[in-house]
Amino acid sequence: MKLQTLNSPLLENLEPMLNESIYHFLVEFQKGRTDFSELGSIFFRLTQTMTDPPLEFIWFYSALTFQTAKSSNLRDPHNFLLSLKDLFHSLVSFRIPSDSSYLTQVSLLAPVLYQLVNLKFLISSCKAEIEGLVDAVVSHIILCCNNDLVEQEVRGFKSSVSWVSLVPIWIADQVNENQGRVDGLQLFFPLSTEDIRQGINEDSGTAYLAGIVMIESFLLRLCLMFDSEASRKELHKDVKSYAAQIIKGFKKNPTFLVMLFKLLLEPNLPVAELLSSTDELLLKKLLFDVALDLGSFLNYDTSSWLSDVQYKDIAILWLFLTNSALQFASENGDHAGVGCYMNGFSASQLPLQIISWVTSGTNMKPTTPDISSPKDLIGWLLVLEKQGLKICDYSISGLHEKTLKDKKSMGINNGVKDGDSMIEDPPIQINGRRKRDTMGFECEVQKQIKVIKCCHENQGDGGFRSKNEVGNAVSDQEMVDMVR
Question: Can you tell which superkingdom this protein's organism belongs to (predicted)?
Fold first, then answer.
């Protein structure tokens, strides 16, 4: 069989065929058809002739074969799990060029994560098998991240088909069964936050998709650990250790770190259907512990895998994360946690690095106040931003306003023991919590036939720079007024 490299003209000719096939599948699936083996064989031959098959073509072929197999195995959880394992092995075995981005290999696994999360929702009898497959997914991602593959995604022209267009294929059975509420992206990425999903649009490439795959596999694997019969103390140790290992393996993708930090700035983790509110709170506390440890190695000398802009953005998020962790520990009566987080802040070089970036980014040298806590440093940055200094890609006031709103929505009560920070009675009432079997739907089935289009715009314009001259002095009272 002769292999062909997809140049721009050839791919442009094939894309209308893919679009028509997507539409054809959705229409026929809605009518009740479940066997798409004939269409699947066409796309199998097509992908096998490509030396570098695009993710969209791989997904379409894989979705056709999986949906056909799934229709006959859905009533038997063990057979369904076998079909899911076959999907995983099929996706990781696709011929990807050696000079391809590792991001593509990671991104391919998004449908596997989607199916695994839904399987966990519905089935408890296959715990060991589900756990084993999640481990295989995580291990494969770490392997991809450590391969010497290029990190940038490259496409020589504007494609008319994005991976977002394939989402309706994967969720077609949910749409038919549940008659739709929740938009397709929320169904497909059940362990992502609204903020993460709002970052998706037709131009979202594999870097962003890979970040979502990493976040969801990370959360799912840690949630599965709460099903163990280990003691609470052992669970603390195991979750923190495994979380640290995964973060170390995933850190090559800066998008993952940004998503992780922003995830922890939310009032709730997106795991309400996998964990009780008590366990969710415990997981968040443990993730604060692990994430804040990143401050010990996120310094300019050892962060060569980050660009300057990425490093600055992550450092600012780390600052807000530290402040949120201190609030979280204080409001839960976790005095040991407060001391630990303050020690970590004092020991990190990131606060001094942030100050250096700011003071060297303007001709008017602002006076550096006595900064002894994250709250002090955030207050200083807020005053400078108000005076016109652009700190980073993020709005400091926007991040601060978000954390204030999140704090008000959490309704935290004391319920944590010092020392181990062992959380017992549910200390938090989480608004909007829902169970899987009562999840309603709002979208009509016909909306899922159309290509999903997300038009959310990302904002931000550059790194540390001054738009206006910045005043010299910032009083303690100004900072107190800004950070409440």
Answer: Eukaryota
The residue-averaged pLDDT of 284-311 equals 77
Find the length of the chain: 484
Reported as a single tens digit per residue, the pLDDT across 75-88 is 677 888 889 999 99
Residue pointed to by tokens 């005053």: 383
Comparing CA positions, the residue from 226, 41, 219, 23 lying closest to residue 116 is: 219
Helix and strand totals (H; E) in the chain? 22, 2
Of residues 372 and 10, the one with the higher pLDDT is 372
> What are the sequence ranges of the domains in the chain?
302-437+454-484
pTM of the model: 0.81
pLDDT at 261 over 90: yes
> In angstroms, rounded to a whole number, what is the distance separating the alpha carbons of residues 120 and 435?
13
Identify which of 302, 268, 309 has the alpha carbon closest to the alpha carbon of residue 287: 268
Q: What span, in angstroms and rounded, lies between the C-alpha atoms of 433 and 277?
A: 9
SS3 category, 370? coil
Q: For residue 341, which of 317, 322, 318 has the smallest C-alpha distance?
A: 322
Q: How many CB atoms lie within 10 A of CB 312?
A: 20
* Interior angle at CA 256, CA 100 and CA 186, nearest 5: 100
Cα–Cα distance measured from residue 78 to residue 123, given in angstroms and rounded to the nearest whole number: 10
Q: Which residues of 98-109 are buried (b: 16+ CB within 10 A; e: fewer)?
A: eebbbbbbbbbb
| Other Cβ atoms within 10 Å of 259 Cβ, number | 24
Q: 277: Cβ–Cβ under 8 A, 6 or more apart, which residues?
A: 426, 428, 429, 430, 433
Calculate the average pLDDT of the chain.
76
Query: Long-range contacts of range 465-468, CB-CB < 8 Å, 24 or more positions apart?
Result: 465/361, 465/390, 466/361, 466/362, 466/363, 466/364, 466/388, 466/389, 466/390, 467/388, 467/389, 467/390, 468/387, 468/388, 468/389
Distance of alpha carbon 225 from the chain centroid: 19
d(CA 201, CA 219) in angstroms, rounded, equals: 23
- The two structure tokens encoding residue 212: 């979502």
pLDDT in tens, 368-422: 777 889 999 999 999 888 888 777 777 888 888 877 766 555 544 433 333 343 3
- In the block, tokens 């002894």 appear at 372
AA letter at 415: G
Spatial distance between the Cα atoms of 263 and 7, rounded to a whole number of angstroms: 39
Question: Taking the chain, what is the end-to-end CA distance rounded to the nearest angstrom?
Answer: 67
